[in-house]
Design brief:
The protein is of the alpha/beta class and about 600 residues long. It contains 15 helices and 24 strands. A hairpin with a 2-residue loop joins strand 12 and strand 13. It binds flavin-adenine dinucleotide and 2-acetamido-2-deoxy-beta-D-glucopyranose (5 copies). It holds the Pfam family GMC_oxred_C.
């Protein structure tokens, strides 16, 4: 039985009533702008464009409301591990594309299922709600890579800040030893559509994880929204402060746009192909409930279908590597060799112990306790159900003494303030209580490679957007990533040992795993995504043959077409990318409405 079965039934009453979607004039209609993909970036961009009453905007989204089609585990923060986002190919969710990857060549040929939102809100409706920004050096490097200084940290900061409203943590609801430090100027005082705050509960295990991370050399940091990722702190979250439920691009940008603008939303509508007249994008072929029709764009088509499907849509529409398109009978409109290439992602592995502090294991194994926790959430929006899994995060640049000369040289492509490793406290217990637990408490520290050198790709073997793209994650294909992973796992073990909260022997990988070879084998056998694919329609200088879009996100080689989402990141910021997705959407919307900021 689902460990939260009683809870889920009980909490079904929290499902959020939907707002009516405007369909505009319906099929074969014409708009100024058509945004393909009502996900994280797409809804932010469309909502901003629609604020101008003289502009007509439509969004085409394959899914509907996740609150209705997915259930409460997609809304209540602590239930996110139960929202069917696992890597098991047998897992699936009705609000997800449920993609399977190609076999991981350097991770035991495993095929993993890769979660991606198929819903209004996109992957912001699937994610684990961590909100933070990259480092100053990250965006300064974006400026260098694009040859456009308007992507520097100083220049993008206003676009981060205008997107959000920061609500201070409600310390009265949190344990005294889980007090949050933060930058209260991280969002504009007037506030933007997206709520960012902290949950009404600090996971006790995270306090011990922090002790361990600090014992091995990290220091407490003030926050992660101000251009530095160094040391430990409580991450801010995309959670609604009063309701303590998931905040997504749908609950924020879309809801406000539906109340105040004429934004048209074509939900449950699949975009099949971009239409061109010569080199000009003029519309989108779509399908709703089996019926095909065309939406025409007077000004532009903007693709925000995410890092897997934006390159796919470009390719099936004739923009991509000629060698991929021609054998599939796709007429080449622009031979763009970079489409789908150079994909980045952050892989993660885990170290786990039995611990002598309360974790999620208790709610999985003790029904009376679970009932009490439900009541606490229902009556006051407090307690453990308010918190998504990641509690305290820790960031570090590995000491050069731990790395080979080759690794030090290869990692020099990253700016000086860019951490190599992210540690994520996971007071989640065992997600499957049949997996050894008899009411004992288990917890983990996830270790993510955030300066990876391995690259993957997205390709197609069908000219139809309705067939899944070919997803090659490329994890651990670069030898330096394997070396860093082994070093990082050893650091995680040291942190856990120093935490003072462990009971007995290490649970995962376990004492039998000792040599570098054994550690690498454990990592190959268990490595999984943090779900941050990016860079598959990379933004760059027009002179760079691999650049897919220019620094205003315009697709190179054609007219009236942009891509705006994680696929255009010139480099994948260390850590969790949703804040950067919102920033990119805010910035390009401003470019479109008011001209480029340079
Ligand atoms: C399980 C999980 C956990 C994560 N945890 C975090 C986290 O804690 N913090 C964080 O910052 N990031 C996290 N991420 C990553 C983050 O959510 C993504 O980087 C971000 O949401 C990507 O935004 P996007 O706009 O690029 O794409 P998406 O939000 O995925 O939007 C793409 C949209 O396009 C639609 N679409 C695609 N193709 C078509 C088509 N042909 N026709 C119509 N519609 C189409 C999709 O249905 C989707 O709605 C997580 C992601 C996952 C999956
Ligand atoms: C929509 O356009 C298609 C051609 O693109 C045409 O075949 C169809 O009849 C049109 N439908 C309506 C209702 O106008
Ligand atoms: C979703 O996950 C739960 C466990 O959390 C599992 O019992 C259920 O079968 C999954 N659903 C699908 C459709 O895979
Ligand atoms: C912090 O307080 C919580 C709640 O009292 C407790 O469970 C946890 O062990 C404490 N952490 C530390 C490091 O003392
Ligand atoms: C991180 O902080 C430590 C102090 O705790 C400092 O010595 C180190 O230089 C900082 N690293 C970066 C990359 O800023
Ligand atoms: C495309 O590749 C997938 C995954 O390898 C495979 O299952 C599918 O049959 C292929 N389709 C075609 C048309 O070759």
């Amino acid at each position: 039985m689902h460990p939260f079965a009683p809870l889920l039934a009980f909490l079904a009453s929290f499902a959020v009533p939907s707002l009516a979607l405007h369909h505009g004039p319906g099929i074969n209609a014409t708009y100024d702008y058509i945004v393909v993909g009502g996900g994280t970036s797409g809804l932010a961009l469309a909502a901003r464009l629609a604020e101008d009453p003289s502009i007509s905007v439509a969004v085409v989204e394959a899914g509907g409301y996740y609150e209705e089609e997915g259930g409460p585990e997609n809304v209540i923060p602590a239930l996110c591990p139960f929202a069917n986002t696992s890597t098991d190919p047998a897992d699936s969710s009705p609000i997800d594309w449920n993609f399977d990857t190609l076999p991981l060549t350097d991770a035991n040929s495993r095929v993993i299922r890769y979660a991606r939102g198929k819903t209004l809100g996109g992957s912001s409706a699937r994610n684990f709600m961590v909100y933070h920004r990259g480092t100053r050096g990250t965006y300064d490097q974006w400026a260098e890579l694009t040859g456009d200084s308007s992507w520097s940290w100083e220049s993008v900061l206003p676009y981060f800040k205008r997107g959000c409203t920061l609500t201070p943590p409600n310390e009265a609801t949190r344990f005294p030893n889980t007090t949050v430090t933060y930058n209260d100027a991280a969002c504009d005082p007037a506030g933007g559509p997206l709520h960012v705050t902290w949950p009404n509960y600090g996971d006790p295990f995270a306090t011990w994880a922090a002790i361990g991370l600090e014992a091995i050399g990290m220091s407490p940091a003030n926050d992660f929204n101000s251009g530095e990722l160094n040391g430990t702190a409580w991450a801010s979250n995309t959670i609604h402060p009063r309701r303590q439920i998931r905040e997504s691009s749908e609950t924020s940008y879309l809801r406000s746009a539906l109340k105040t603008s004429t934004l048209a939303v074509y939900d449950h509508t699949m975009a099949l192909r971009i239409d061109f007249e010569g080199l000009n994008a003029v519309g989108v072929q779509v399908k709703t409930a089996g019926k095909r029709y065309t939406l025409r764009a007077r000004k532009e088509v903007i693709i925000s279908a995410g890092a897997f499907q934006s390159p796919q849509l470009l390719m099936v529409s004739g923009i991509g590597p000629r060698s991929t398109l021609e054998p599939l009978g796709i007429t080449v409109i622009a031979d763009s060799p970079g489409v789908g290439q150079g994909m980045w992602d952050h892989p993660i592995f885990n170290v786990a112990y039995q611990v002598n502090v309360e974790t999620m294991t208790r709610y999985q194994t003790d029904p009376e306790y679970a009932a009490q926790v439900m009541l606490e959430y229902e009556s006051r929006r407090e307690g453990p159900l308010t918190t998504p899994v990641p509690g305290i995060l820790g960031w570090e640049r590995l000491s050069e003494s731990l790395l080979s000369a080759e690794a030090i040289e290869a990692l020099a492509v990253f700016p000086d303030d860019w951490p190599m490793v992210e540690y994520i406290s996971r007071g989640t217990g065992l997600l499957d209580p049949s997996d050894g637990s008899n009411g004992e408490q288990y917890a983990g520290i996830g270790t993510a490679l955030v300066a990876p050198l391995s690259r993957g790709s997205i390709s197609i073997n069908s000219s139809s957007a309705e067939h899944p793209p070919l997803i090659d994650l490329g994890y651990l294909t670069h030898p330096v990533d394997r070396e860093v992973a082994i070093a990082a796992l050893k650091r995680t073990r040291q942190a856990f040992e120093a935490s003072g909260v462990t009971v007995g022997d290490e649970y995962q990988p376990g004492p039998a795993v000792q040599t570098d070879e054994e550690i690498l084998e454990y990592i190959r056998a268990t490595i999984s995504p943090v779900y941050h694919p990016a860079g598959t329609c990379v933004m760059g200088k027009a002179t760079d043959r691999n650049a897919v879009v220019d620094s205003q996100a315009r697709v190179i080689g054609v007219n009236n077409l942009r891509v705006v989402d994680a696929s255009i990141f010139p480099a994948l910021p260390p850590g969790h990318p949703q804040a950067s997705c919102y920033m990119v959407a805010e910035k390009i919307a401003d470019d479109i409405l008011h001209g480029p900021s340079q």
